[in-house]
Amino acid sequence: MGAQVRFEDRTWQVTTLVDGRAYLAAEDGPTGCVLAARLVAAPDFKVVGRADLPMPSAEAWAALPLADRERALSWQRHIREIETGLPGGSGSAGVPRDEYDPQRFTLAEREHAKARELAALGWTKVSRATVQRRRIAYHKQGLMGLVDHRSLRARTATGRADERVVAAVLEALRLRRGRKATTVRQIIDLAERIVADRHGPGRVTLPARSSLYRLVRMLADPAEPVGCPARTATGPDGAGGDAPALRPAERVHVATARLGVEAVGEDGRAVTVSVTCTLDGATGCVLAAVLHPQQAAPVELSVLLAEMTVPRSARPGWREMLRAAHEALPLPLPQRLMPLDARIEATVARPVALPQTLVFDPAAAAVTPWFLTVCESLGVSLEAAPARRRGVHPVAGDTVKTLAGLFTRHAADLAGALGAVHPPDSAGRQAEAFFSLPHLRDVLDEWITARWHTRPQQALRHPLLPKAALSPQEMWRVLLGVAGSVPVPLTGQDFAELLPVQHQAVTESGIRLGRRRYDHECLDEHRGRPCPTTDGGRWEVHHHPYDVRQVYIRLPDGLLHQIPWTEHAHALRPFDDTVRRRTGQILAARSGPPGHPPPANDGPGREAGVPAGGTGLTDTSAPGGADVAPVPDGPGRAGALGMWDAQAEAEQW
After folding, report:
1. Full-model pTM
2. How many other CB atoms sit within 10 Å of the CB of residue 60?
3. Residue 357: beta bridge partners?
4. Domain 251-469 bears CATH identifier 2.40.30.10
5. For 105-151, what is each residue's pLDDT tens digit?
6. Where exactly are the structural domains of the chain?
7. What's the 3-state SS for 624-648?
8. CA neighbours closer than 13 Å in the CB half-sphere of residue 476
9. DSSP characters for 390-417?
10. Residue 592 and residue 612: Cα distance in Å, rounded?
């Protein structure tokens, strides 16, 4: 409350935040009230005086030498301490050191103090003017403004350490952080054991010991050399279970649960499906949910971060894709939980926020150096979920399992309403799965919006009102008004930046990725040409692993452009799903035992024992049988060589 924002080409002041609504007052007198979720998702929304630091590109950051990357991250912590008194920035835990207290010293005095401190730590050519230039460059260009410009000009693939070795050294530094008896030799030995445990003995070529010594000294924070006590606490107190969350997006948990329904994979066969959710610890809202085959690799945390921090209305082409997915299943109410217009309105108002702390299971998700850099730039703290102990239960994991069970029941009822669940065959085997993965993802998105966020939950109660169970949507509105601030999400361009990267060629037919073709008219002037900004000549393509309808390519203008899948309409059209189901039957018959007939079509006009071809002939050529004899003409035939009527033939049989 009290912040000034830009909205609808006017400057407003936030006077009150009540029940998820923001009450605004303009400078020239008018007042207004708008949903906080709509306010922050508006295209022209901006907080006046808030510095929107640009996010570094994944490719540009990975191309920098490790020393420059670590130096920039160290500068970032020192600049935050100069401006706010805390290395983690405003809102982080701790008490400012005396010489950096903003209440006692001016900004110039704090810059002088930081220059003296860095000089005492061994940093060369550091003065108050240097610190000031670094701080101004950080506010203009973000983290890339703290990188030596000579490193930005020089691009070479030689002389760089293996990223797997770098990750192991960083992990060893984290494990031995703050221990006075630690030496560089111990850090190197621990890093070598970590590499052998993660990738196997001898699978990763380790540098020479002299190179590892230099690598450890480069990766170590200059303010905390190896063997010195830590300046801050290494983690939260493990006693008493997880720390409570008191405001929206304060603690967001990542959990996975298996669904009880199967979906049809890209090879036409049924696959077991799991759902991975990011669950807000204070309100129970699902900020992001993705479906994926259970045998697939763990969900990338950068994809979940993009899903939960960027409003759907800010993503290019979102409304058209939602309309196509909704119309792909022409269901009447109540099977269709809400009409299309109501669904669009409700989806726009779904909570999105940048988390303060992201809690995840380190055994189920891999944290890359790039993701650590993004979280450091955005101010997101990462916390490993504690192992299950006596008296401590993973509440988020149990909640996601409950969500998976309820959605499994809804999907089974929906499939039954569509008439897609066939009876078991003669061998007792259940019929094939009906939903394809794109269908099931759309059904999950609608169900979370219409059912989960509006369903009262027993865990969402206030201590003073123990008999009133609230829904996640209601709890979000309650805590949003109590917290007095709205978690501001990211922009549409940041959504594409957070997605995984692959390098592909731009041919005359477009971009080939995962046996799919993506094309758009913006590629016309680049077809068949190498990328001028990469070493190999291939173009930087960002893709969503669980949404194949579009990819994003970085063109020479530096921006990521959306490129649609040329055949995206086939993924959700009802007729194409019928073709897919029939193809699955043919593939299943291919791998059946010798002499076993293909599955019969259980559609109207066909009994379970009729051959698929419907020839009207009785095959008695087996041992002990007679020759093949034609069936006399019946109502299904117009003569010996006439037209065959399937309906009449079925009635005769």
Report:
1. 0.63
2. 15
3. 251, 381
4. no
5. 999 999 999 999 999 988 888 899 999 998 888 888 888 888 877 76
6. 4-47, 61-153+160-219, 251-469, 499-566, 600-653
7. CCCCCEECCCCCCECCCCCCECHHH
8. 25
9. TTB--HHHHHHHHHHHHHHHHHHHHHHH
10. 16
